[in-house]
Design a protein that fits this description.
The chain contains twelve helices and seven strands. By secondary structure, it is of the alpha/beta class. The protein has two domains: 35 residues; 282 residues, 3-Layer(aba) Sandwich (Rossmann fold), CATH 3.40.50. The protein has a seven-stranded parallel beta sheet, with helices on both faces.
Length: 332
């Protein structure tokens, strides 16, 4: 090997070493930066919606244990009472229906009195509903609206109503979307609403970042909560099927509904995670980190299936769903 060849080889290796060293250092700096937390949790107020059960309920209990002043919005008095029984004396609840602007305004006025001049450090828009979900042709307009009113319109209304309190504290907004806000895998209002939450959050983050407010999006995969409970899902599917005209039913075939329900059961039993802390830990990080992330992906299925699929050509998702879902009897 001549001298020039040796120099060329060393030069190539030097570039590789420099690149690898840079990447390792960048990753270590990112890990350190990601681990830095804000202080003085005891003087920070956080408002959470949808706290009767599931992610919101667990998050409130975790934040309460960490010393935050938690303001929990519950849909029912039973949910509020159950939460207060397992929480500390500083957690407070308020009845909140995110589909009602009057209810949201009353909750904001109550929260304003609680937080005073300190303002609201964080708001977590967690309230949501799943069904009805199913083939798009089975839906009526009101089926779409019933989900959009909670998941998308509710998130927007709560955020905009509470924004002055957040701005006062230069705080955080945490919106719960879904991996189905990145990949449209079923009909109905759920995916539409979560795509809407993603868009709203991105626009809002860019608009109010100048005021020191951070907006984070939580993208959970499939977890065992009320939204993924099989009985309501199957009940909605049977209701949707029964309201179809005989002609539409015939185009799908007599056995299509049972096949569709069977597939739903297989999917939910296979991918639903029981560890809700994978989601609430992301919410907590968004509220406690000095440098919160823009997006948090929670769950093995989200990381290994849904998010990678969201970057693939649409035909890949189309083919995958065709292989999984049943085929109508009169399909071409």
């Amino acid at each position: 090997m001549d001298t020039q060849a040796v120099y060329d080889l060393l030069g190539e290796n030097a570039c590789l070493y420099i690149t690898c060293t840079f990447l390792v250092l960048w990753f270590l700096v990112w890990l350190y930066r990601d681990s830095i937390e804000v202080d003085d949790f005891a003087n920070k107020y956080v408002f959470v919606t949808g706290c009767d059960t599931g992610f919101g309920n667990l998050l409130c209990r975790n934040l309460d244990r960490r010393g935050f002043r938690v303001l929990a919005g519950c849909l029912t008095e039973k949910g509020a009472d159950d939460l207060k029984r397992v929480a500390g004396p500083y957690l407070k609840t308020v009845l909140l229906d995110v589909t009602s602007q009057d209810s949201i305004t009353k909750a904001m006025e109550w929260a304003s009195k609680e937080v005073g001049e300190k303002g609201l450090w964080g708001i977590v828009n967690n309230a949501g509903r799943g069904g009805p979900m199913g083939p798009s042709e089975w839906m009526r307009v009101e089926d779409f609206h019933s989900t959009l009113k909670v998941n998308m319109n509710g998130t927007i209304a709560v955020t905009m109503t509470f924004l002055p309190l957040i701005k006062r504290a230069r705080g955080r907004i945490v919106n719960v979307a879904s991996v189905l806000g990145r990949v449209a895998a079923n009909g109905g209002g759920y995916c539409i609403s979560k795509f809407g939450v993603e868009c709203f959050s991105d626009c809002l983050r860019r608009d109010i970042n100048y005021f020191g407010i951070n907006v984070s999006i939580i993208e959970p995969g499939f977890f065992k909560t009320a939204i993924t409970s099989l009985d309501p899902i199957e009940g909605d599917l049977r209701r949707l099927w029964n309201q179809l005209t005989p002609e539409v039913q015939a185009s799908y075939g007599d056995k299509y509904l049972d096949k569709f329900i069977k597939v739903q059961r297989l999917i939910m039993n296979a991918v639903c995670d029981t560890d809700l802390t994978k989601v609430t830990s992301c919410m907590e990080h968004a509220l406690t980190a000095a440098y919160p992330r823009t997006r948090y992906t929670a769950g093995w299925d989200a990381k290994l299936i849904w998010i990678p699929l969201s970057y693939m050509p649409s035909c890949v998702v189309d083919i995958g769903l065709r292989l999984v879902m049943p085929r109508p009897s009169k399909s071409v």
